[in-house]
Design goal:
Layout lengths: L17 H14 L5 H11 L5 H13 L4 H44 L3 H29 L3 H15 L5 H22 L1
Helix pairs in contact: 1-2, 1-4, 3-4, 6-7
Family: Belongs to the chromate ion transporter (CHR) (TC 2.A.51) family.
Organism: Humitalea rosea
Membrane topology: Multi-pass membrane protein
């Protein structure tokens, strides 16, 4: 299935090798302060056109229910899809290598400069920008996927259960996961 990626783009780019995966994830990770998912989606879906919006959302959905960071899980799956084990290793090195180097540098700088009020204010601003990127990415994906109303309702129930009722993720998945699967199966029978 080849979903429209963005207006005017309906074909996928050539599949990447390990080096392409490394550079794509390194770029996304280097730009993704506070979370690289928004940048990974942008690089993989919009810039390099390796996957459709729906394919990327499906991989992220699987990555979210697996243990560990969802964007890391997705990097392993996407790397394997395009270049096998070397692709998974390259994607993970690109995703985690540059931020590790930057984090070590920031930790050294914070140790020396963290007590300065201007630096503390800057860090609060970076945190707010990262939160805005996460919200913007979620809104962009939601509008492009054109989800049916029943699945949107299940997603909103999951968000409410986590945010307001502070239910554990495992319980939310155990209750709402089967509801989502049932909704898709019922819709498939109608088609």
């Amino acid at each position: 299935m080849n979903d429209a990626i963005s207006p005017g783009i309906d074909t996928l780019g050539p599949p990447p090798g390990p080096w392409g995966l490394f550079t794509a994830y390194a770029k996304a990770a280097s730009l993704g302060f506070g979370g690289a998912n928004a940048w990974c989606r942008r690089v993989i879906v919009e810039e390099r056109r390796w996957m459709t919006e729906r394919e990327y959302a499906e991989v992220m959905g699987i990555g979210q229910v697996l243990p560990g960071p969802n964007v890391g899980n997705a990097a392993v799956m996407i790397g394997r899809r395009f270049a096998g084990l070397p692709g998974s290793v390259a994607a993970c090195l690109g995703l985690y290598g540059p931020p590790l180097v930057m984090l070590m540098g920031f930790a050294l700088a914070w140790d020396q400069l963290g007590s300065i009020p201007t630096v503390a204010g800057f860090m609060h601003g970076v945190a707010a920008a990262a939160a805005g990127m996460v919200i913007g990415n979620a809104a962009r994906q939601a509008t492009r996927l054109r989800l049916p109303w029943d699945l949107i309702g299940i997603g909103l129930c999951a968000a409410a259960a986590a945010a307001w009722f502070q239910m554990p993720l495992l319980l939310i998945v155990a209750v709402l996961g089967p509801a989502g699967i049932a909704a898709v199966v019922v819709r498939g029978r109608r088609a």
